[in-house]
Each structure stands twice: as C-alpha cells, then as structure tokens.
Write a structure and sequence with these properties.
It is a single chain. The chain has a single domain, classed as Aldolase class I (TIM Barrel). Helix content is 42%, strand content 15%. The chain has an eight-stranded parallel beta barrel with strand order 1-2-3-4-5-6-7-8, surrounded by six helices. The longest helix is centred in the last third of the chain and has 18 residues. It is globular and about 45 Å long. It binds 2-phosphoglycolic acid. The site of 2-phosphoglycolic acid has 13 residues, from strand 8.
Length: 253
Amino acid sequence: MRRILVAGNWKMNTGRADAVELAGGLAECHSESSSVDVLIAPPFVWLEAVAEAIRGSGVLLAGQNAWCEPSGAYTGEVSCEMLADVGCGWVILGHSERRQLLGDTDQLVSDKVSAAHAGGLDVILCVGETREQREASETEAVLSRQLLAGLAAVDAETIKRLVVAYEPVWAIGTGLTATTLQAESAHAHLRNQLAVRYNSEVAESTRILYGGSVKSDNAAELMSQPNVDGALVGGASLSVESFVAIIDAAREL
Ligand code: PGA
C-alpha cells in the first residue's frame, strides 16, 4: 500500500511572518499518527524558522532545489548537506520552473538527485510535458526521458528514497488541471517505466504525485485514481485553509 503524500511547494512566496504562521497553522492541524504524509517546501531563507514552527508535528520539510556539490565556490547556491543541517529531510528537484527558467537540464537534475541521496535527503523528482509537447503527442516520450535521466544514478535500493511528481507544465499555475484520465494515463506510463527500468516491486512501491492547479475541489477526484499517490500543490498550499482541505480530502480516500 502506498501512503498518500500531500506536498506544498511555496515557490518564491511568503514573508518571514507569513511563513511561520502558515507552518504553525499546518502543524496544529497535523499529527504524526495521520494516515497521510504532509510536506512543505518554503523558500530557503525561511527554512530555519519554519523548521522551528513545525517541530514535533510530523510535517516534513523540503528545500525547493539544491546544488549538486556538497560545498565550494558556487555563489548563490545551497547544498543538500546545508538543507539537511537546517532540518530538511527532503528536496524537490527538476521542477519545470527550474527546467524552463533556471537552466536545469536532465543531466543537472540527475547530478542533483545523486547529491541529494549522498547528502541524506529524500527526493521529489518532477517531470512533465509542455502544452506543445502534448499537442505533438510527445507526452510519453518526454516523461520517459525526464524520468530515466533523473534516475540514471538511482538503484533499486535508493529509489525507496524518491517520489516522482507528474506535473504537466500547461497545468501549473494556470487553473487548467489535467483530467483524471490524462493524469491517470501519465501516471500509469511512469509506473510502467519504473517496472521496465527496475522491477515490478519498485514500480508498485514508488509513489507518483500529481501536480498542476490542484485545489480542494479537484484533489479528491485526482488522488482517487489508482496510480495517483498524492499531490504536489503550489498556489493552494499558501493558505492553511486550502491546503488542509486537500489534506483532508486525501485522508478521506
Ligand atoms: P500550482 O503549482 O498548484 O500552483 O499549479 C504546482 C507546482 O508547480 O508544483
């Protein structure tokens, strides 16, 4: 049985006070005995304050990105070791905004995945096609390429420390959501790729989240698909009310 994970990617949002308030509000609504895993990824600069606000609550903490070396002359970058040191157990890698705007190539994402595992972090590896790629019937090819590249250095043991997130680029922050059929079909494809790359046990045990305009009113339907094991939520993770509504929808499944 795959445990549902509901993850909130705050992106470059919140001030320090809002971040602490949001994290504290979520911590109050969550308990370690919950049937659902809950994770938040605040901006780097608020990680320490947020770690304090969620201490003891069972809410998991992630960085939104990291560099692929443990230390050195990489101005402006943050290493996986630093994220672990500040209280993160996780890091999001390969988000489409980083791939499209900030130069993350398949190779760099793969290097970052290795660095994260070496640095003690679990990974949410994001993959997803653009609207043009979907219209050109390239969705499955793009997903296979990004998935297999991201997993290039991940063996059947280490993949236990990785969750895949399917995020169609055309659905991120646009209010357009994949239909349950589109999501389920992409997830089934990704799971099949895991079976080919590893084995059926890995395919059955690896969680695959859906991301892209997930809201409280579509979360239950998306997460009830057989191959959808949770959600990676952007905009709707920025208020306690809307994020908890998605977590509650997951609990009720
Ligand atoms: P969104 O973002 O929920 O605002 O569409 C999702 C994401 O980018 O992870």
